[in-house]
Design brief:
Layout: E1 4-7, H1 11-24, E2 27-33, H2 40-44, E3 47-52, H3 63-73, E4 77-79, H4 89-97, E5 101-102, H5 107-114, H6 116-125, H7 140-150, E6 154-158, E7 168-170, H8 176-191, E8 196-200, E9 206-214, E10 220-231, E11 237-242, H9 249-265, E12 270-278, E13 284-290, H10 297-304, H11 308-316, E14 333-340, E15 342-343, E16 349-350, E17 353-354, E18 357-359, E19 366-370, E20 377-378, E21 385-393, H12 396-409, E22 411-413, H13 419-427, H14 429-433, H15 440-444
Parallel strand pairs: 1-2, 1-4, 2-3, 4-5
Antiparallel strand pairs: 6-7, 6-8, 9-10, 9-12, 10-11, 11-14, 12-13, 14-21, 15-16, 17-20, 18-22, 19-21
Helix pairs in contact: 4-5, 12-13
């Protein structure tokens, strides 16, 4: 195991990694911007290094500064968390060149699976079901031809990146040109790559993803699936569940097997997520792979009892996975709600400011992953996530009741949050009955 690692991230995921390292006896180095000098991850780490001004591009995305911080502190490895540099193959490659272990997949795997168009082709070769789609689109004429062939609606997607950026649903031909231009511009701004492609848009599917772990010794396992269908029109997830209670056992088995096959096909190592869309008939299609730990990973930890961050560290250190597929048992039901600094009364406009009161929920089956504390100032530069409230219960109905209780206990004052909107979701009769799909918020929560 490593003696010291640097965490190239901030917020709740940096705190999460520090806690896992502490339990394994691994020293930690936090990097931070000037705006984050008093952040919780800086306070909890063994060492801290400032890597630049507030804007992410000048600090958390500054590869030279982050790598220099790792070098001068003697860190043997870097954990990228999610976002920022987590899926940047150049960063992973530079870490390799300076003999610092990147806690994640190889640069080749990041490039292959990070480009959605290339990943689709690779999955098709591996006989993993994919949604009908196109290679990268380079002009409007090709787009029109492809869309007419598939039939509207279609979805335009950025070849690089993820997180819902560079994606536009097009319902008819009159929207196509504007959708292409907008998606390409957003992709260029977010990922430095404006390449896009087109897929057939499935009507009211579920977004179901499978967590996988793979080591350097050829072992690949899955840890069940998560239902991430409750998301905004911009594909930002708000609530996740594990397992997906509304797919049959046969589909669950097939999803897991397909995810393992997908990871093995590209020689994947470390933690990753294979994302699928599941239609009303239970037929599933590969959508993309996230080559990192995800925001919603704790719901999988809650139903499996597996510490995914600890497994990431062990795999990166060259160890074998600590469990086999037969050891993975899903117990009960878990729900995660993302508390964000967004105002539901102002179309979810992002908020910043000082938290004057913070009280986290507790009790049986409740977990909180957060970087908040009383007096913490939320900077305006970064993602709006403030806390992840998680619950675990014997079944879905009890998990919903427990989450309602937990959200009622949360107190965050001094800054606007989306708590009231999450409470509305939990009370929605369609959500309670499991009638959810990726357009749930638009159709049932307007």
């Amino acid at each position: 195991m490593f003696k010291k690692i640097l965490i190239a991230n901030r917020g709740e995921i940096a705190v999460r990694v520090i806690r896992a390292c502490r339990e394994l006896g691994v020293e930690t180095v936090a990097v931070h911007s000037v705006a984050d000098k008093d952040a919780l991850h800086v306070q909890l780490a063994d060492q801290a290094v400032c890597v630049g001004p507030g804007p992410a591009r000048e600090s958390y995305l500054n590869i030279a500064n982050v790598v220099s911080a790792a070098t001068i502190t003697g860190a043997q490895a870097v954990h990228p968390g999610y976002g920022f540099l987590a899926e940047n193959s150049s960063f992973a490659e530079i870490c390799e060149q300076v003999k610092i272990k990147f806690i994640g997949p190889t640069p080749r795997a990041i490039d292959l699976m990070g480009n959605k168009s290339a990943a689709r082709q690779k999955m098709a070769e591996a006989k993993v079901p994919i949604i009908p789609g196109t290679p990268p689109i380079h002009d409007e004429r090709d787009a029109q031809k492809a869309a007419r062939s598939m039939g509207f609606p279609v979805i335009i997607k950025a070849s690089a990146g993820g997180g819902g950026k560079g994606m536009r649903v097009v319902h008819d031909e009159s929207e196509l040109a504007a959708g292409l231009a907008t998606a390409a511009a957003e992709a260029e701004a977010a990922f430095g790559n404006g390449e896009v492609y087109i897929e057939k848009y499935l009507v009211q599917p579920r977004h179901v993803e499978v967590q996988i772990l793979a080591d350097a010794h050829g072992n690949v396992i899955h840890l069940g699936e998560r239902d991430c269908s409750v998301q905004t029109a911009r594909h930002q997830k708000m609530l996740e569940e594990a397992p997906c209670s509304f797919i049959p056992a046969s589909t669950r088995k097939a999803l897991g097997e397909a995810a393992v096959k997908a990871a093995a096909t590209v020689g994947y190592q470390n933690a990753g997520t294979i994302e699928f869309l599941v239609d009303a008939k239970g037929k599933f299609f590969f959508m993309e792979m996230n080559t990192r730990i995800q925001v919603e990973h704790p719901v999988t930890e809650m139903v499996t009892g597996v510490d995914l961050i600890a497994e990431q560290l062990r795999v990166a250190a060259g160890e074998k996975l600590t469990l086999r597929q037969k050891d993975v048992i899903l117990e009960g039901h878990s729900i995660e709600c993302r508390i964000t600094a967004e105002d539901p009364e102002r179309n979810f406009a992002p908020a910043s400011g000082t938290v004057t009161r913070y009280e986290a929920p507790g009790g049986l089956g409740v977990r909180v992953d957060s970087h908040l504390y009383n007096g913490y100032t939320v900077p305006p530069y970064y993602d709006s996530l403030l806390a992840k409230i998680l619950v675990h219960a014997p079944d879905r109905d009890m998990a919903i009741a427990r989450m309602e209780r937990a959200l009622n206990e949360v107190r965050i004052e001094g800054i606007a949050t989306n708590r009231s909107y999450l409470q509305r979701i939990l009370k929605n009769e369609y959500f309670r009955s499991g009638e959810i799909s990726t357009d749930f918020l638009e159709r049932r929560m307007s």
